[in-house]
Every structure is written in C-alpha cells, then in structure tokens.
Amino acid sequence: MISIIVFSKKYASSTWCLNELVEIYQCYKELGQMVIPVFYDVDPSDVRKQTGDFGNTFKKTCKRTTEDVKQQLMWMQALKDVASIAGQSSRNWNNDANMIEQISNDVSNKLFTQSEDFGDFVGMDAHIEAMNPMLCLENEEVRMVGIVGPSGIGKSTIARALFSRLSSRFDNRTFVSYKRTIQDDYGMKLAWEKQFLSDILGQKDIKIDSLGVVQRRLKNKKVLIVVDDVDDLKLLETVAGKKGWFGCGSRIIVVTQDMHILRSHEIELIHEVDFPSKDLALAMLCRSAFGKKFPPDGFMELAVEVTELAGNLPLGLNVLGSSLRSRDKVEWVKMLPRLQDGLDGKIEKTLRISYDALDSKDQDLFIHIACLLSGKSIISIENLLKGSANICIGLRILAEKSLIRITSPYETVEMHNLLRALGREIVRAESVYNPGKRRFLVNAKDISDVFKDNTGSDSVLGIICNTSEFSEPLSMDKKSFKRMNNLEFLKFHKGRRLVRKTGEARLYLPEGLVYLPRKLKLLHCNEYPGKYIPSNLIGDYLVELKMENSKLEKMWEGTQPFRSLKKIGMCYSKDLKEIPDLSNAKNLNVLNLNCCTSLVTLPSSIRNLHKLKHLGMNKCTNLKVLPADVSLESLEFLGLRGNSRLRCFPGISRNISYCLWIENLSGLSTLDWDNCPLRCMPSNFLPKHLSHLSMTYNKLEKLWTGVQ
C-alpha cells in the first residue's frame, strides 16, 4: 500500500486530516508502508517545524480543539517526520500537470518494485538470512554493506531481491549501475553525481555545477542505495563517499567482484557469495530446465552431468538449463558434446568482462592458471614462473577480483572450471586454424594434429592433456619438439573422461623421448613407457619432474645438475629399483616415491638434500633399510606407512610435524629417534622385533598407551 499525503496551507485546519496523518505515520513506522508527501504551495520546512502560514493554522487548530495535549504532540511528531520524507513540491514545477505525472510515475515504479518476486529463486533465503545481521535495519546508524563474488555467482540477483524487500522502508531508494564513459575524472564524477541525484530524488532536470551536492541533498534523508557491478572506486567516492552523507538508518549496498574496492572504501560488513552445494546447484539447473527443483524420471544422471559442466555457477546453471528446456532425453544426450566443447556465448561474454579489465601481466598469469596451474600452491606457481613479474601481487589481484580462490591449508590456487574454459577459449582464438601457433595446447585432437603434422612452433609454451581423451595412441618421435624451442610445460596425465572413447589411450614412443627443449620447467608424464630417462633430457630449468605409474626401472644414469629442481614424483612406478645420485639437487623440496614396490633403499646422497621438506615412501613394500648418518633437518613430512620389511630406522629430522609411518613398522628391529619431536608414540605402534630403541633428548611425555 502507498499513501499520498497532500499538504496545503489549510491542511492543518482539519483535525480529521491530522488524525489520519497519525494513523498513516504509525503504519509507516511499524509496517513499512510507503508514503509520498506532496507539498502544494507550502514549504516542507514550514510543515516540518509548524512555522509560517501553515504553522499559524496549526496553532489555531490546537487552541480550539478538544483533543488532549498528548494527541497534539502526536500531530507534531507526525508532521515533523512525514514532512522529512522525500516527496514532491509544487514550487519545483512549472505546472501542476507535470508534477502529477511525476507522482504517477513514482507510484508505478514503487508498486512495480514491490511486486518483483524473488521467492522462487533457489537458495535466495539463505543469502537474505546471512545478510540480515549486517543490515540490522532496526539500528539507526548508517551502514555500508558489500556483496562480493565472481562473475555469474548471483550477486546482482541477491542485491535486487534485497532491494525489492526493503524498498518500502526508506524515504528514497535507487538501484544503479554506472560505468565510466569519459576519461576525464572530474567530468565523469559530475555526470555520475547528476544522474545519481536524478535517480534517487526522481527529478529529471537536476542541475549541478560542482561536486558535493549529494551530501547536501541527502544528509537528512533515510535512503536505500544499491550500487551494482562496481569496478571503479571513484564511482563509490562520488555517490556514496561517506556514511555521514546520508540520514539516520540509511543503507548502502555495494555489489562488486573486486574485494580490493570494498577494502579501499573501508567497508567491513561483507557478504561473500560462495558456490552453491551440489544439491543446491542441481536444484538451480532443474528449476531452469524443468520448472521444478527435481529432474523428471530418467533425467537425473544427465542433469547431474550438466550441473558439473556448469561448475555449480548459477549463471551457467541458468543458461545451460534454459538451453535444454522443453527438450526430450534424446536431445539432451545430443546436446552434451556441444556443451562440453566450449562456453555458451552469454556465459563467455559475462566472464570475459573481468578478464578484459586486467592489465597484460595479470592476463598472462590468468591464462597460465587457466591452462596449467589451477590446483597448485602459491609456492609451486612462484617456482614455475620464476623470472616473471611479481607473482604474489598478480595472484592477490586475481583473488581480489574473484578470478581465483586461494584455499587453506596449503595456499592452493583454484580457478572455477568455467573461468578455466574462458582462458582456454582465449588461447584457442589466438590461432583458430593452426593450433601449433598457440601459447598452450590443451585439446587432445589439436595436440594429436600438431604432432602428426609436425606443426609446432616457438609460440607454444605448454602442452597439457588428459591422455584418456586420445582416440588413438599418440606417437612422438625425435622431431616432435624440434620447433618448440620455448616449450616450458609438458604434462600428459590420465584422468576421468566425460565422454567415453573406444580403445585404450596411451603414449607411443618408438624411439623414446630423445629430445626435449632445454627451457622445460615442468615435465609430467603419466604412464611413461620407457625404462629410463635419457640424461640429456634433464635441463637446468627443470623445476618439477613427475612420472607416476611409469615403466621406469631407473631414473637416469650418473649425476645431473638439477639447479632448479624442486619436486620429484615417481609414485606407483612399481618397476623402479633404484634412485640415482641426487647430490646436486640441493633445492629439492619434495620427493614422492609412494608405492614404488621394487625399491629396496635410498642412495646415501639423500643426506645432501638439506631443503627436503616432504619425503613420501608409503607402501614401498620391499624397502628394508634407510641410509645411516642421514640428517635432514628441514624434513617436515615423512611417510613410511605400510613398510613392514623396514628393519633399521635412523634419526632423520627434529622438525617433523606430520608422520604416516611408525604404527605400521611392525618388523622394525632398530629405531634411532634422538631429539624426537613427537610427544607420544602412536598407541598402535607394535614393534614385535624391536631390539634397539634410542630416544634421547626428545619431547616425549610418554612412550605409548597400554602394554606393548
């Protein structure tokens, strides 16, 4: 309901009008009823303060009325507060007809805003509930609240729902989204301020000659302002620079995907919009595709797969769901490959805005993460991109703009799969018809074509592929990489396929890997078929070497330089019998040998790995002895779980904080654990054959619980 109150010079002569005003005022305060005051040939200040001709009339009414003093005080309060609500004054209009038209438009807009229904939006209530304590509408202080999250997550929809629900409680309200259209800062701010005042006051021809009018015009008004899609801090400084610009009880909601903007504007109350759960995402897709929260019979598996393709992103769920609406099951199956191959145009356009706003260095970092580095730790990314611009600053910028997420406890950098798809599409567009000239090759067919036709070039920085996606074995020979002089990243891994292919995907190396570019920093080759790695393949730039589930019997001959090597991973290489001399790998942090079941011992050169933090040898079932006199002071993680044949265990490190080992060493006969960092041995430590135990200078409070 909306009440329109027309104040005239003689309005206060009627006790009936004044009593009705009190009733309307009570509904305004208690029920949030909207009120539009119209001041016809009377100054709003005279109504508010009961002065001038209006005040004289009011005083006469009070003298002759039979109403008690309490009722008269209620009249005065109602006049004061209602006259403070933004409305229309006839003195601001050339003729009454134009004013009446504006009032009519105001009423229509308010009614339309109220009728907008977000109640059927899946998951909306949880967001509203989370924001209620931040908004705290019963508090009379001015509050600024931020809504932040990646593109397509539903920030604007949440803001519109809030605006719809709260509008009736505020004298003036507006939902705006302004973008920079001119380069001159002052001129742009002046244009923004003029447009903003016009929007919130409902006046078309506002004239301002200088900045600062917002605080003068709105300082006594209770306003609701939603500033959507903010990507320029200067916009906030113009329309909502400080809380003191607005009247008591005002609420300003700022929607952005850039956390830095909120922090810079000192907004502390922030609602971070996260990705919905799998169940909620499925419900969102179904609402868009089927008009209900659950899929019809026979559609569950398909609906789940499409939900995964959308990466639980509400925009993607809505767009993909809409594209599949009213289609039968056969059409869904036919549409899946198309959905898997690329981004929908609407989704790409929305996400691309964020990428285009980055500078060139941050765009380059975005592409590297999208194509290769998502899922890696900050430290790993810094190691692999060493020599590039400040990586930490770039990662922070991407995180603030909601393009990546950095998760605990290992500071892992994660990028949403639709953003990854955007990055890969940007790379594909660099050379649509000649993939050998792109920066990154990530598509199995493109990679296969480049190797078959030998069309690689020095533009290629990385090749990353799931070998399960090859329709036939990928054959590589000594010429395959000759033209790729700048190749830095080579990763062949085996993962889950969205569409099953016939035949077993694998790599075919008739001559072995006989040549790799010298600038290679990362070499991952799952199921490497060779028995050893040629020594000439290991270059000075190599940072990560991972050949899991390989056929390797030994890694290489002799000693390699290894100036940059940080990680070695040989897990599940069940034929691996020996580890080469690692004396020169002085920067090695991680050595993973889990499930290398033919491995019997480690080389004595391991004692030189003074930066080694992680040593994984779980389920090396033939491991019998570790080198004596080893002192790895930097070691933090040691995995020896499932090594029942291990007989002798030397003191290795005082700094180990996490162990997966001792409870499974039932065959251990000698344990030298001086300076032990543990406070208690595991209760399931069962050393049946232990004959020598040394644990001097340790932190143990007790050996174990129970009888051993």
TrEMBL record:
Domain TIR, chain residue ranges per copy: 1-111
Chain segments annotated as transmembrane: none
Entries under Pfam families matching the protein: LRR_3, NB-ARC, TIR, WHD_ROQ1
Superkingdom: Eukaryota
UniProt keyword list: Hydrolase, Leucine-rich repeat, NAD, Repeat
PROSITE patterns for the chain: TIR (PS50104)
Keyword Hydrolase: yes
Cross-referenced PANTHER family: ADP-RIBOSYL CYCLASE_CYCLIC ADP-RIBOSE HYDROLASE-RELATED (PTHR11017:SF274), LEUCINE-RICH REPEAT-CONTAINING PROTEIN (PTHR11017)
Protein name: TIR domain-containing protein
Species, as recorded: Eutrema salsugineum (Saltwater cress)
